[in-house]
Amino acid sequence: MALASMSSAFVNTLFTQTVAYAADEFGINNSGQGIGAAIVRWGIVICLPIVAFADRHGRRPTMIAMAWIAPVVCALGALSPSFSFLVATQTIGRPLGLTLDILIGVVAIEEMPRNARAYATGFLAVLSGLGAGIAVASLPLADISDTSWRYVYVVTLVWLVVAVALMKWLPESQRFEKHHNISTEAHVAARTALRATIGRICSVVFLTNLYIATASIFQNRYLKEDRGYSALLVALFTTATSAPASLGLIVGGRIADERGRRILGATMVPLGALLLALSFNTSGTTMWVVAIAGGLAFGVSYPAMAVYRGELFPTVVRSLAGGIIMTSALVGGSVGLIAGGRIIDTGIAYGTVMLWLVTGPVIASLIVWFKYPETAHLELEEINPADLLR
Length: 390
Fold this sequence. Notes:
globular, 390 residues, mainly alpha, Growth Hormone, Chain: A
């Protein structure tokens, strides 16, 4: 699972880290980059029938297929004759990597004991961060020449090793084997539970990613244009400010399992958003410090928020729910990217735009505070009575 999370994270980080350099070669402005990144995110609709397949036929075969196909498709970006071709390859490859990520989360939640689900989610996120870190560490390749960003896409093929590992060592989820052959009545109850819960989860991830996607895509451009950072210095900044979040993931996972998820998520998400927005409004040491603090706050919040995406849904619709939630997150990110890119192109400062977008995570935190249940210390069957029906 850890190896798979690293592969998925690399694929999902690839376009975000390289788009500024590809845009320079093809002469694409901020607005064009935002639209391209939004289109890549809209590709998530590809994952919906795939995760539905995983709910019917198993997590294992679907994960193995994604681990093979996603790196190969993403690597085709190295051959791009145009920005449109690059966007097209990533619109297919990145959602396949995200599908793998969804299923990793599903299996982690289904296989872990009740007092370790958030901790396991945080731990896998740490390993996922290593995969993303490899993408960031590959970024100095983009400094070799105007077209050398393509080498970063070639590195993607290294992750085919993970597909081989999954074929050898990944078992099927025990809860899937137990619950997928159920009665029509149980299926109806599961889908009713899905409809009753999905709205509040989707609204939170939509509002949160409205901010997070925009900040992540335009951070490299901001550092490159406003601060004059080289690709190497951008990579150093990203690594140095993101690495401490790993500690937050472990600590946050432990707190979420022992003390509860709801309050932790509701307080840390808006705090992290505000601090990261301030990093776009400061310079020098202060910029680095507030970016580190913001990443740490988001790291603490992540296990609590991520574990809800699987806990609140019955087994026979858990993967589908994950796909719908991921779709909502990426639609939110697309709205932020298009709006943010257009506003920045009018001459409004990056920092001002990011502070405006903090409104999304603040509203999301209120939904979590007032509408989310507390699920710590409960078995999945206690949270989802539909799983008790046969």
